Amino acid sequence: MDDFASFIEKQMNSFFGDALFDDFIHKELVPLSHLKERHSSWVLEIDLPLVDRKNIEITSSDDHLTVKAKLTKTFCVSRGSIVTEFDYFKKTIKLPSGINTKQISAKFKNGILKITMPKPTNGKKIPIE
Amino acid sequence: MSENPSILLLGIPGPGLIGTMSMAYIVHTLKMDLVGEIESSPATIVFVDNGQIVGPVRIYKKDRLFAILSDIPIDYDNAIDFTESVIDFSKKNNVDLVVFISGIHVPERNVSNLKTYGLVTHEKLEKMLYDNEIPKFLSGVISGPDATILTQLKNSPIPAIAFNTECNYFFPDPDAAMQTIKIISQITKQKIDLTEFKKQMDYLRLQNRQLMEDTLNVLQTQKESSTAPPQIYK
Question: Considering only alpha carbons, which residue of chain B is nearest residue A113?
């Protein structure tokens, strides 16, 4: 590993080794994500460095969406004498209510997966008193 | 300002973690010496390196260049004390210029042509922006600890420049950090080889996930307590 990589890893492990999401329990990396609300859609962005587009799998059920992505290289994290190897990112999120999963679309650019979920356009009319 | 000014670089976790990633690389590449720390009382976190207790906010030096690097987000409650310590240190060490590194959120930015904007506290520094072809941050809003730090710097006698690079606010953004390093290299007239940084860009995004999450939590707390819409840039 290069010098700078060791330098950063040492810092991160020292500060956050125990807190690093729950990566170590499932041996899967939890990616950073951000959900934005737009006028007519929800946009979920997921940061997937070290991933090729062809190795991303998105699945959805009625109310959940799961993204699993294989890393192009095994990512190792050492804590003391224990080295943990990671090969996958995985994240499951609860979908905003009323989303039609058939209309969900996704794009992948610069290592960021952008999933667009159109908001439902039909609903019950609410009278104004 | 003299031909060879004493410069203090300041990098803390913020939007896109630009301050932390760029400063860590500069410190590492220029082989700057650890000369001190900014301590908070009571200390909430320390780490142990080669049997030595080291704090999260450290001061480095090489020749007439100083760098302050924080590995923890500076929250709103600590931002004033932190900046007072920076100003105090600058006075005691005859620093001529403080350079504060951060980012501005630009969602649809062009990653291959990121821009860095400069904001100066003293009019005489505008020439430095002009000479280095750095566009001036003309209008917008800066919030969070950055706002506190900039206000304190503006009110101090030590000239300061803030460099804000277009970035992804929510994820570690090594592209924006690299652009910032280029600007720092230009301003400080220090040659900084980016080869190693380019090789590590994906790993930096992986390794800094937790710090990004912690930083956003700090920024989010401030957003919720704000009375105005939290707008970093418009």
Answer: B171
Residues of chain B with pLDDT under 70: 1, 222-234
pLDDT in tens, A93-117: 998 888 888 899 999 999 999 999 9
Where along chain B do its domains lie? 7-225
Number of domain units in chain A: 1
| Nearest partner of B36 among B74, B8, B16, judged by Cα | B8
Q: Which residues of A are less than 8 Å from B205 in CB distance?
A: 47, 49-50, 111
Within a domain: A92: yes
What is the CB-side half-sphere exposure of residue B80 using CA atoms within 13 A? 1
Task: Give the CA distances from residue B208 to residues B34, B154, B202, in Å, rounded to whole numbers and listed in that order.
Answer: 22, 31, 10
Q: Is residue A127 part of a domain?
A: no
Q: Which domain holds residue A9?
A: 3-13+26-118
> Looking at the complex, does the CB of residue A25 fall below 8 Å from at least one CB of chain B?
no
The alpha-carbon gap from A4 to the nearest alpha carbon of chain B, in Å, equals 7
> Does residue A36 or residue A62 have the better pLDDT?
A36
Which superfamily is assigned to B7-225 in CATH? PAC-like subunit (3.40.50.10900)
Q: Do A8 and B207 touch (CB under 8 A)?
A: yes
Q: What is the pLDDT of residues B99-152, one digit of tens each?
A: 999 999 998 889 999 999 999 999 989 999 999 999 999 988 888 889 999 999
CA angle A113, A42, B218 (to 5 degrees): 75
